[in-house]
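Hello forum,

I keep getting stuck at the same step: I have a sequence, I want structure tokens, and every attempt I make locally crashes halfway through. Rather than fight my setup again tonight, could one of you with a working pipeline run this one for me? It's a single chain of 342 residues.
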Amino acid sequence: MGSIPGGSPSEDLSTTRPSVESVVIIGSGPAAWTAAIYAARADLNPVVYEGEPSREMIPGGQLMFTTDIENFPGFPKAIGGQEFMALMKEQAVRFGTRVVGENITKVDLTERPFLLTPSYSQPVTAQTVIVATGARAIWLGLDNEERLAQSGGGVSACAVCDGALPFFRDKVLVVVGGGDSAMEEAIYLTKFAREVVIIHRRDAFRASRVMVDRALANPKIRVEWNTEVVDVLGGDEITGVRLRHTQTGDEREMGAGGLFVAIGHTPNTAFLDGAVELDASGYIVTPTSWRTETSVAGVFAAGDVIDPYYRQAITSAGSGCMAALEAERWLAHHGDPAVTAS
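Reply #2:
Ran it on my machine without issues. Output:
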């Protein structure tokens, strides 16, 4: 099991948990820890299943790959993504949140209490569940790409998160993709870059016409058509990319001071196996606007797992607060002893 940075180890709930938990939170990004803070302060004794490290994701979510966070209120000086997530977790634990370093691999939401199956330990039952498992960026799958993304060496999947950092200013920045997100990222980066180069493997974008027109009209943006990135160059920091022409196979190197991958995100909802309603892209549907309850009463969702549009730490944290408040009120109205007795 995992451990709490600077704190006590994750708790083995196989011997210490009550028969039914009031709130189980699945995930470990800003939404999950904010939900835990609010639930713990409401004396709901929440349990967080924070997940396990894998090649694609690590506990803490996408901010674990962000070097400096400058746009979260309350931090006038930049704070590192890993430090930021450690502080969020520490705050949740301070109020009594219990943490398990495992994934939830299977859920049964057909009746209350809900049945959740972790990777290794015994199944856990819960009166309410908050799903805050986030979404993972789709990467190119290159070794140097992954290494430089994790080390803060100039590879990112979020221009709005990272593009304004001093590291990227006045440099040639590369954006990979051909959809609306790639156009938006490229246009945003022109505020800071000397030049933005969009790399697209086809001869036409799939983005909407209005976004394509805006990108192509920007004098700081140029496009490399029928081209793909096959390697990221650099040691501690990116120095360029190796490109391959998709029609001729010819390869060449191009200098660059940053690489932004904008080929989409995948919500981490496969483990739900259709237990709640998902949209066509796999994001959890919340039937009522500005609410976090899912299609299953007593199951709530927060953060990037419900948000393909904003995908920011501050919006994730806000929805985590909403989910915890909704779970508390739902428990109060449905006779959970931990709430009705308080």
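DSSP finds nine helices and 17 strands in the chain. If your local run keeps crashing, start a new thread with the error log.
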